[in-house]
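Query protein
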Amino acid sequence: MNKKTALITGIGGQDGAYLAEFLLKKNYKVIGIERRSAERSNWRLKKLSILDKIIMEDSDIKEIGNLIRIFKKYKFNEVYNLAAQSFVKSSFDNPIETSQVNAFGTLNLLEIIRNQNKNIKFYQASTSEMFGNSSSFQSEITKFEPESPYAASKLYAYWITK
């Protein structure tokens, strides 16, 4: 049986690092994307002793050309999109950058999958921020009421994925 290959965007974050560890234990080949402008802080991957087991690619989710290059280089079975500008306050300070990363970065990945291999499984990380200040527990029928550029951009990513 061939080893499955997974792409994890946002691999340096908490969820990305633990997901990478989980997939490696399941014998996946794991490719991680790290943007060039980010401080190379892979301390979570180092702490989990998995940094040397992951192939890191230098790219930015906003750069579709580089993403296409990576998709052509590897035959992905699964893509996990955990990359985000995830600071609510920063999203008010820079809503365009937030939207480019969270909304259109997701669209870039989906377009590549649509054009190259529709059989790739895709996971899009969401946030409770999409519900706003809901006064009750959220469920599948809770109304979305984003209250920040971050929440609105994640809601776009949700709907475009769906």
Remarks:
- The mean pLDDT is 94.
- The CA atoms of residues 72 and 132 lie 38 Å apart.
- Residues 95-116 form the longest helix (22 residues).
- The two ends are 31 Å apart (CA to CA).
